[in-house]
Design a protein that fits this description.
The structure is a single chain. This protein has 399 residues and is of the alpha/beta class. The protein contains 10 helices and 13 strands. The strands form 4 sheets. It has a 7-stranded mixed sheet, with helices on both faces. Strand 5, helix 3 and strand 6 (138-144) form a beta-alpha-beta unit. Helix 5 runs antiparallel to helix 6 (192-206). The longest helix is centred in the first third of the chain and has 21 residues, at 11-31. The mean pLDDT is 89. The protein binds iron/sulfur cluster (2 copies). One iron/sulfur cluster binds next to helix 7.
Length: 399
């Protein structure tokens, strides 16, 4: 028997974090007398900021080391997952990893009765608005927390890794038990806080009050998956010479007017998206010129629409926009679709402004220059229609 864990993480932000979780599952399961093995998905390019990637751990109580490795060696993807960990809840909208075509449901690999374990501050019904339906029952478990940047360059110490181990132990003790997790963490780090963080996560998933954090999801719950699953060509179907057709070039003014690669929509890379108040836009061109992914489409009347299917959520447009409250980055899980915001505004200017302000809310989240210090939360302002005020850029200064 083989039990499989997949760890869904965002590119370079969480690479070391995911790897640490995978390798510690191996160490802990081995101490419990099992064979275990971990690897990353063949073909991911985790150096790309925020790109959805996967790390795996395999545990077997009865196979030999060679048998387990033969079964679970580097593959393009995992076959199935007993536990699928999600380190950033915005990946619940689907993931399109580098080199793997098509937006895939986050729970695609979860087996019947298996577990999707998400770090989130949202509740089950909020997340199920975005997660694809499965034809069988499985469980959705939520560990309260934000998307950690603990894997950026070096492993920053915010105890997410220990909490993930405790969470996995609560869901499937046959993989790793909480006692083995605690013993391993204390022995390895001599730091009681790490074992306590694992135990806290374990207890929170096991507790029924104030509300259960693990919930059965039935086949009628979730989203009818809107993205087509592409069929990759077999090797014998490939032609000689250029086998990947180039993107046909094209440009016209207006929404979706530029040619883009329909085979790789990078939008699942983002955890926030820019919301534009077109009534405040001065048509300065900066967002269009600075967007690294060329997501802005110039319109016939001089504005710039956004194609959210390709936006990676880097925040550069919001950073360079010179007008106060004109572009604001907003939590990706507040949006159901990738429709053109410009078309919405043209159709119903007043309604669009109201919609944009509701989505923005009042809190503005920014990240400090030095990661691992948490987020900076400030209060935004609702600008009256058409009121253009220059934004004052403030540099972060270390104390
Ligand atoms: S956040 Fe802005 S600059 Fe960054 S990819 Fe999206 S549209 Fe482009
Ligand atoms: S940067 Fe701001 S003001 Fe300039 S064109 Fe873009 S949205 Fe308009």
């Amino acid at each position: 028997m083989i039990k499989r864990v997949e760890i869904n993480y965002r590119g370079i932000f969480q690479k070391n974090l995911a790897k640490k979780i995978g390798s510690d599952i191996v160490m802990i399961a081995s101490r419990m007398g099992q064979q275990a093995f971990s690897n990353g998905r063949y073909s991911d390019a985790p150096e790309r900021n925020g790109i959805p990637c996967k790390y795996f751990a395999f545990v077997s109580p009865d196979l030999s080391e060679e048998e387990l490795e033969a079964e679970c060696g580097a593959k393009l993807d995992i076959d199935e997952a007993n536990v699928s960990v999600v380190l950033d809840d915005t990946m619940c909208k689907g993931v399109e990893p580098w080199g793997w075509h098509g937006v895939r449901p986050i729970n695609e690999k979860v087996v019947p009765g298996g577990y999707l374990l998400v770090f989130s501050r949202k509740d089950h019904s909020d997340l199920l608005r975005f997660i694809g339906k499965k034809p069988y029952n499985y469980h959705l478990a939520i560990l309260e927390g934000d998307a950690s940047l603990a894997g950026l360059w070096v492993n920053k110490d915010d105890l997410t890794h220990e909490r993930a181990l405790g969470g996995i132990a609560a869901l499937d003790p046959s993989l790793i038990s909480i006692e083995a997790v605690e013993e391993y963490l204390i022995e390895k780090t001599k730091d009681k806080r790490r074992a306590e963080a694992a135990r806290e996560a374990y207890d929170s998933l096991r507790a029924e009050a104030p509300k259960p954090r693990v919930r059965l999801v039935t086949p009628d719950e979730g989203l009818d998956w809107p993205h087509e699953i592409p069929v990759l060509p077999k090797w014998y179907e490939m032609e000689e010479g250029i086998v990947v057709p180039a993107v046909k070039r094209g440009f016209q003014l207006g929404p979706r007017g530029q040619s883009r690669n329909s085979g790789f929509k990078r939008g699942t890379t983002k955890s926030q998206r820019p919301v534009v108040r077109f009534d405040l836009c001065t048509k300065c061109t900066l967002c269009w010129a600075e967007c690294p992914d060329e997501c802005f489409d110039p319109t016939t009347d001089g504005y710039y629409d956004i194609d959210y299917q390709y936006c990676v959520g880097c925040g550069k447009c919001a950073e360079v926009c010179p007008v106060k409250e004109c572009i604001v980055m907003v939590d990706e899980l507040r949006f159901e679709n990738d429709d053109s915001p410009y078309e919405h505004w043209k159709r119903d200017p007043k309604g669009y402004i109201q919609w944009a302000e509701e989505k923005k809310g009042r809190e503005r989240i920014t990240y400090p220059e030095v990661t691992g210090k948490g987020v900076i939360v400030t209060q935004g302002e609702v600008m009256p229609q058409g009121k253009i005020v220059g934004v004052k850029k403030v540099e972060e200064v270390s104390a």
